[in-house]
């Protein structure tokens, strides 16, 4: 197992490609099903050492107003002060603090900030591959996931159901599929 901390002088820096990246979430709805959503605007960088695809540093930002759950009324509610409060907190951010493991099994420790609240989170992930695109750009891909409790980040709105339970579950699964292109 490799533990990597901080960038080196020879780091390769890749920019997250928003057109080929998915930042999604899954949360229980009414105790009987799961709602899936994603954010359409993701940006950031991934730093890699010269001879490995295990990152040394990751920073990412998500434009919260880009949320899409395939239900406009729900999206409007999620953007409101009941949830993300987009007017006050327009971005979600993540900054790695430590990365461990190998290409087959990464653990990315970092600080996730939602609604101005920062909490430590650990993403479990894998390196998915590297390739040169038809225009000569070097690309890398990663998959990762984590679970958080939304209430830890001030996302506390809920409503009790007559039959018992609540409208929105507390646990949220974050699913990432990231493609990044080397900066020239």
State the main characteristics:
184 residues, Lipocalin, eight-stranded antiparallel β-barrel, 12 strands
Structure summary:
This protein has one helix at 72-79; strands at residues 2-4, 12-16, 22-29, 33-39, 42-48, 57-63, 67-68, 91-102, 105-114, 117-132, 138-149, 168-182.
Word description of this protein:
This protein is mainly beta and 184 residues long. The protein has one domain: Beta Barrel (Lipocalin). The chain is built from 1 helix and 12 strands. The chain has an 8-stranded antiparallel beta barrel. Strand 5 and strand 6 (57-63) form a beta hairpin. The chain starts with a strand and ends with a strand. The model has no long low-confidence stretch (mean pLDDT 89).
Show the helix and strand layout.
Blueprint lengths: L1 E3 L7 E5 L5 E8 L3 E7 L2 E7 L8 E7 L3 E2 L3 H8 L11 E12 L2 E10 L2 E16 L5 E12 L18 E15 L2
Antiparallel strand pairs: 1-8, 2-5, 2-12, 3-4, 3-12, 4-7, 5-6, 6-8, 8-9, 9-10, 10-11, 11-12
């Amino acid at each position: 197992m490799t533990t990597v901390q901080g960038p080196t002088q020879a780091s390769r820096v890749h920019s997250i490609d928003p057109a080929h990246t998915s930042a999604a979430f899954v949360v229980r709805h009414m105790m009987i099903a799961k709602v899936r959503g994603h954010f359409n605007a993701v940006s950031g960088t991934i730093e890699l050492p010269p001879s490995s695809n295990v990152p040394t540093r990751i920073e990412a930002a998500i434009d919260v107003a880009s949320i899409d759950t395939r239900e406009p009324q729900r999206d409007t509610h999620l953007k409101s002060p009941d949830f993300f409060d987009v007017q006050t907190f327009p971005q979600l951010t993540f900054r790695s603090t430590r990365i461990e493991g190998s290409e087959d099994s990464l653990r990315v420790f970092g600080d996730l900030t939602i609604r101005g609240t920062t909490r430590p989170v650990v993403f479990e992930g894998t390196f998915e591959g590297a390739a040169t695109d038809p225009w000569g750009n070097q690309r890398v891909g990663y998959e990762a996931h984590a679970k958080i409790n939304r209430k830890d980040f001030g996302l506390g709105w809920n409503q009790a159901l007559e039959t018992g339970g609540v409208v929105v579950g507390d646990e949220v699964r974050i699913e990432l599929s990231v493609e990044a292109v080397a900066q020239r």
